[in-house]
Design a protein that fits this description.
The complex is a heterodimer of chains A (about 400) and B (about 525).
Chain A lengths: L1 H12 L6 H17 L1 H12 L3 H26 L3 E2 L12 E2 L6 E5 L7 H12 L3 E5 L5 H14 L5 E3 L4 H9 L4 E5 L2 H12 L5 E4 L5 E4 L5 H13 L11 E4 L4 H16 L15 H9 L5 E4 L3 E2 L4 E2 L2 E4 L16 E6 L3 H9 L8 E3 L7 H21 L1
Chain B lengths: L32 H20 L6 H17 L1 H12 L3 H26 L3 E2 L10 E8 L2 E5 L7 H12 L3 E5 L5 H14 L5 E3 L4 H9 L4 E5 L2 H12 L5 E4 L5 E4 L5 H13 L11 E4 L4 H16 L15 H10 L4 E4 L3 E2 L4 E2 L2 E4 L16 E6 L3 H9 L6 E5 L3 H10 L4 E4 L20 E2 L5 H6 L1 E8 L5 H4 L8 H11 L1 H28 L1
Parallel strand pairs in B: 3-4, 3-6, 4-5, 6-7, 8-9, 8-15, 9-14, 13-14, 15-16
Antiparallel strand pairs in B: 1-2, 2-18, 7-17, 10-13, 11-12
The chains are: A alpha/beta (about 400), B alpha/beta (about 525).
Keywords (chain B): Endoplasmic reticulum, Fatty acid metabolism, Lipid metabolism, Membrane, Microsome, NAD, Oxidoreductase, Phosphoprotein, Transmembrane, Transmembrane helix
GO molecular function (chain B): 3-chloroallyl aldehyde dehydrogenase activity; farnesal dehydrogenase (NAD+) activity
Main location (chain B): endoplasmic reticulum
Chain lengths: ~400, ~525
């Protein structure tokens, strides 16, 4: 492990990764990899999460391509020195900020979106001129394997390497010295990563999680609200770091919400959700059991069907959830949506503030900010564009 | 010991291990160990409750507190200067120019700009979010811990405080115990001017700081050395507390043969011996071609005389080493070295003369640790290539200095090395421009502050996307069931390359239709 990291560091010290031209070339090679090997990549993601190739494309590959294009377009400007505002003392001097690479970057990926959560940071690390060690999550095995196979075929083999392995290998890896560590995952391991980083004074970026609350005001269009929430909650079978974890709303809204979510689920996944190509599965048995245990003692408004053999858990909604129960103590990361009734928005705000700061917050209410006339004009222009584009396409 | 103004009455307790270093902000000696631990926890809880009250958040309140801080600095200037002066044997004039003036400048800068900084900032949108509101909302983090340093004990504690208040946080300040007088004056003055529950001073030594670090904060800013920096970050990791670590290192100073040695040596002398070398960004050592050594020594010697007079010990502008431990440490660095000039010491007053060492061997002790004293080693190198390699073989320093008429050489040195910051053809000065984020890289630190960067460090810039509940039709593209045509539409909206071609075609068609409509209208 130490030797591998040393090899990468030597490669960085050679200065090879620094010229703009080199970085652009590597990014273009990465783009080629994603385009040429699209099938392999989609298949890998698909088998890790029981995801259709279409969904793997829209949820992961499309973002990666977008980021690479964005980087290719803007990098030439970003690498240049930026003058800063001067004061009297420095008026006649040159004062600028010079972006420079940090050195060897470690990216620890996650299993829920195993491709984009590893490659999107990689794109930026390459763009910034660093050498990179990628440690994909071992839970998404197929993606980990495909990354180890494909990256060396397209990218510089000494500057950007993939190291695979489990807890033991990762612990060993974390003993080495890096110039930045980006970790995506859970809070507990986040602390371990930061503690290991502290030994070398390595700065860290920790993309963790939490329980992202979703407040539904009584003044809103419940049809639309419930459709949007259903989409975000059950996408990837609830295994999204910014999925709406639970709902807060006035008790009187619960039944309508349950009804509309139920209807939307049918609209999205059909009568038999298990057979929908758009509904994923839980990543492994351990998480399956974990999510199952959250249902104990809960009022299941609909859903709740499971199949351990295929790690299937149906889209589920719980009502009148007691905040002290297990389902409200940890990030659900599954297709279970608790509704916790609150009296009003004040109680909702207090509820949220009594808990750890979440990764995302959602609030649904009629928005009066945008002036009506401007909206109408823009809507009309867009509609026309839409209408024209169909035959053109 | 009565109740100081603004302090609270507490019951005095006596335990078997009382130490002068355990003064709480009220001046009461705290009992030992476990009771003290809980007292620490209670103090932090009190501050957190104060933050949760929401009091520190309104702009008006923050401005008021900053204005009160300004008044404190102006009204109690004498006390502050006296405290700094006695900690570092510094004249009041120097304490003013080195510390107080920066603090006043920062407060004014904050007062002027804060109203603008607290507002939400719209961000650039993409096709997908074109009709939405997208902005960054700066928000306070919560309870911030600022651990000060002893070398510039006032500014290094107050400058972060200014930004933390400006960002709407509650703050716990832990001044360095080595600069006792400043620590005491801060504990005395701050409660007299600032909100007593939101901004508190906790004094103490290693034990108290360790206890404090067990508590949970929303950000910790630490100024000091690398070893303790690691301890701070490790403690912070337990609570996932982000940290800003302003550490140090050996800031190299490369002198090219193509430069004006008079001016170069004057600038280096100023930056090196200021505060008796106890500056985190002091030029630590010089790298130059061997042939320059003698001239450099000569010119530095002349400048020292010009600055401090014949008898440096009697100059009111020459400080002393902070304590006996550091005095002995720096002394030990001189062992076996060729002292070109200086080297005189006086343990009683912790005086070390401005000293220059020549032909220094990189393997000796003076080149193994940050000197933080008035000892300037010159390490001869063959050329700039060797200098660059020398620097790169070592830990990334907090600052890098390069002196040359050759602009290209300066750019090359910057390009091929890494350091927190750079000043070319001078020393220290990049610290004085607050549009620069001031901080280290690698072992010299992480994070940065000064000016708006302090505000940003202590804020959470929260991305907010506000959509309307209308135009749900457009969302159909992202809902299951998925299909190839939906995927193609996704490409249209999210992939720029795709956009440009198709959008161009669309625009053309649109214009064509508009033209057709207009032509038709004319004929009717």
């Amino acid at each position: 492990m130490e030797r591998e990291v040393q090899r990468v560091r030597q490669a960085f010290l050679s200065g090879r990764s620094r010229p703009l031209r080199f970085r652009l070339q590597q990014l273009e090679a990465l783009r080629r990899m994603v385009q040429e090997r699209e099938k392999d990549i989609l298949a890998a993601i698909g088998s890790d999460l029981c995801k259709s190739e279409l969904n793997a494309y829209t949820q992961e590959v499309i973002s990666v391509l977008g980021e690479i294009d964005f980087m290719l377009e803007n990098l030439p400007e970003w690498v240049t020195a930026k003058p800063v505002k001067k004061n009297l003392l420095t008026m006649l001097d040159e004062a600028y900020l010079q972006p420079q690479p940090l050195g060897v970057v470690l990216i620890i990926g996650a299993w829920n979106y195993p491709f984009v959560l590893t490659i999107q940071p990689l794109i930026g690390a390459i763009a910034a001129g660093n050498a990179v060690i990628i440690k994909p999550s071992e839970l998404s095995e197929n993606t980990a394997t495909i990354l180890a196979k494909l990256l060396p075929q397209y990218l510089d083999q000494d500057l950007y390497i993939v190291i695979n392995g489990g807890v033991e290998e990762t612990t060993e890896l974390l003993k080495q010295r890096f110039d930045h560590i980006l970790y995506t995952g859970n809070t507990a391991v986040g602390k371990i990563v930061m503690e290991a980083a502290a030994k070398h004074l390595t700065p860290v970026t920790l993309e963790l999680g939490g329980k992202s609350p979703c407040y539904i005001d009584k003044d809103c269009d419940l049809d639309i609200v419930c459709r949007r929430i259903t989409w975000g909650k059950y996408m990837n079978c609830g295994q999204t770091c910014i999925a709406p974890d639970y709902i807060l709303c006035e008790a009187s809204l619960q039944n309508q919400i349950v009804q509309k979510i139920k209807e939307t689920v049918k609209e999205f996944y059909g009568e038999n959700v298990k057979e929908s190509p758009d509904y994923e599965r839980i990543i492994n048995r351990r998480h399956f059991k974990r999510i199952l245990s959250l249902l104990e003692g809960q009022k299941i408004a609909f859903g709740g069907e499971t199949d351990e053999a295929t790690r299937y858990i149906a889209p589920t909604v719980l009502t009148d959830v007691d905040p002290k129960t297990k389902v409200m103590q940890e990030e659900i990361f599954g297709p279970v949506l608790p509704i916790v009734p609150v009296k009003n928005v004040d109680e909702a705000i207090n509820f949220i503030n009594e808990r750890e700061k979440p990764l995302a917050l959602y609030v649904f209410s009629h928005n009066h900010k945008v002036p009506v006339e401007w909206e109408l004009i823009m809507e009309n222009i867009l509609s026309i564009l839409f209408l024209i584009s169909v035959p053109v396409y | 010991m009565g109740t100081p103004p603004g302090g609270r009455r507490r019951e005095r307790r006596r335990g078997p291990h009382l130490r002068a270093s355990r003064l709480s902000r009220t001046g009461v000696l705290l009992p030992c160990s476990s009771l003290q631990d809980r007292a620490m926890e209670r103090e932090v809880q009190r501050v957190r409750q104060a933050f949760l009250s929401g009091r520190s958040r309104p702009l008006r309140f923050r401005l008021q507190q900053l204005e009160a801080l300004r008044r404190m600095v102006q009204e109690r200037e004498k006390d502050i200067l006296a405290a700094i002066g006695s900690d570092l044997c510094k004249s009041e004039l120097n304490a003013y120019t080195q510390e107080v003036i920066s603090v006043l400048g920062e407060i004014d800068f904050m007062l002027e700009n804060l109203p603008e900084w607290v507002t939400a900032k719209p961000v650039k949108k993409n096709l997908l979010t074109m009709l939405d509101e997208a902005y960054l909302q700066p928000q306070p983090l919560g309870v911030v811990l600022i651990i000060g340093a002893w070398n510039y004990p006032f500014v290094l504690t107050i400058q972060p405080l200014i930004g933390a208040i400006a960002a709407g946080n509650a703050v716990i300040i832990k001044p360095s115990e080595l600069s006792e007088n400043t620590a005491t004056i801060l504990a005395k003055l701050l409660p007299q001017y600032l909100d007593q529950d939101l901004y508190i001073v906790i004094n103490g030594g290693v034990e108290e700081t360790t206890e404090l670090l067990k508590q949970r904060f929303d950000h910790i800013l630490y100024t000091g050395n690398t070893a303790v920096g690691k301890i701070v970050m490790e403690a912070a990791a337990k609570h996932l507390t982000p940290v800003t670590l302003e550490l140090g290192g050996k800031s190299p100073c490369y002198i090219d043969k193509d430069c004006d040695l008079d001016i170069v040596c004057r600038r280096i002398t100023w930056g090196k011996y200021m505060n008796c070398g106890q500056t985190c960004i002091a030029p630590d050592y010089i790298l130059c071609e061997a042939s320059l050594q003698n001239q450099i020594v000569q010119k530095i010697k002349e400048t020292v005389k010009e600055f401090y007079g014949e008898n440096v010990k009697e100059s009111p502008d020459y400080e002393r080493i902070i304590n006996r431990r550091h005095f002995k440490r720096i002394l030990s660095l001189l062992e076996g070295q060729k002292i070109a000039f200086g080297g005189e010491t006086d343990e009683a007053t912790r005086y070390i003369a401005p000293t220059v060492l020549t032909d220094v061997d990189p393997k000796t002790k003076v080149m193994q640790e940050e000197i933080f004293g008035p000892v300037l080693p010159i390490v001869p190198v063959k050329n700039v290539d060797e200098a660059i390699n020398f620097i790169n073989e070592r830990e990334k320093p907090l600052a890098l200095y390069v002196f040359s008429h050759n602009h290209k050489l300066i750019k090359r040195m910057i390009d091929e090395t890494s350091s927190g910051g750079v000043t070319g053809n001078d020393v220290i000065m990049h610290f004085m421009l607050n549009s620069f984020p001031f901080g280290g890289v690698g072992s010299s630190g992480m994070g940065a502050y000064h000016g708006k960067h302090t505000f940003d460090t202590f804020s959470h810039q929260r991305p907010c996307l506000l959509k309307s509940l209308k135009r749900e039709g457009a969302n159909k593209l992202r809902y299951p069931p998925n299909s190839q045509s939906k995927v193609d539409w996704g490409k249209f909206f999210l992939l720029k390359r795709f956009n440009k071609e198709k959008l161009g075609l669309l625009l053309l068609t649109f214009l064509g239709i508009v033209a057709a409509v207009l032509v038709k209208a004319e004929y009717y």
